[in-house]
Amino acid sequence: MKKWLVVLIVLSLILSVGFQATCNENETVTVPLVVVYLESPDQIAALLEAGLDIVGIDLVNLEIEVVLNDYDREYLDNAGLKYDILIEDLTYYGPETTEFGIMSMGREDYRQWHEIEEELQTFEEIYPDLTRLHILGHSHQGRPIYALEISAAPGVNDGRPESVHMALYHAREWPTTEMALDLAWYLLDNYGIEEKVTNIVNTIRVWIIPVVNPDGYVHSQNVYQMWRKNRRHNSDNSWGVDLNRNHSYNWGGVGSSGVTTSDTYRGPSPTSEPELWAIRDLFLGRHIITTLSGHTHGRYVLWSWGYKPDLIPDHSVHADLGYQYQAFNGYPMNRVGPSNTTIYATSGASDDWVYGVFRGISFTFEYGTAFIPPYMGTITTANQLVTEQFGTISGNLLTFSVLPGGGER
Length: 409
Ligand code: 0X9
Ligand code: ZN
Hints:
By secondary structure, this protein is α/β, with parallel strands linked by helices.
């Protein structure tokens, strides 16, 4: 081979590798939030069916807010629907100095996946008598679905009431993991110090699942920040199932999409996703009475039903707790209630499954006013997390209060 040809090939190889690396590292996909103008309320059902990435619905003004991914842009343009940009770019660009000097556990930025794994290992080292770290299953790409058990009697199945705190069903909802892990530290660090916490840990078995969707989290942190679903490689070569549409209870109904590229794609069958096998197996083997699933955003307190507008038989228990949480966090009064009528219809969400199958008290909290707000830390000494974007630890403790030993309401 001619020398110049070899040089050319080597050079082009170096350039292409360099180019790929630069592309991946510097990839910033800007995704806007838009307001879509509707003409009649009937259009909402069609848009939910189409699986648009809807964030909120304003029935009075007939407007919906949509995260404008490629799929949504194409759909709206084809349907001839008019929209305006509300936020040009939903990307989070790193930590900012906030008025809250003390960062969460001394942190200044969101936890990376490897940091979460490392941190989870430390719980048993620091609190061997109060914790067990479990691996409930694995994601599509083989990452563990961790559950941290917190109890004065860890590692046994003795029938005491149990409560589960789940986070990060949706890849881009980073604050939910912060809340879950800070809640774990809060319970442990204050055991034997604060009476309420001591009672909770003594009488209730708490399960903290900080990342239900680890593949999505890694993808959101490294490749495409506004990613929502998991990382199933769909049969048509598209990616992802919305884990909050894949639970089996009334799977496949309104508010979930059969279109694989949609952000609310429900998956090929009920509980098709390994991430949810992990959750299911925990619930099947245990005595779980209350559940909290953390999401961002909107400052909503939601419970069942999602799949139909009817009230659940245990509406009042949920409303009682829900309004206390709303008041505690200063959320708007009209953002508390059954999902279907308070935010929008959803089928296959975690709360409907927990309530429908197990009759567990089950909440979906939508923290804050952005998917990934500027990082704000905790003021742990005052038992207060920053309320505006991350919710509050004290507020989340309320979900234990319906259980014996769970504290004053
Ligand atoms: O669409 C969702 O899954 C939740 N909103 S988010 O922006 N975090 O994706 C809302 C779910 C509401 N429905 C139920 N809780 N059932
Ligand atoms: Zn969510």
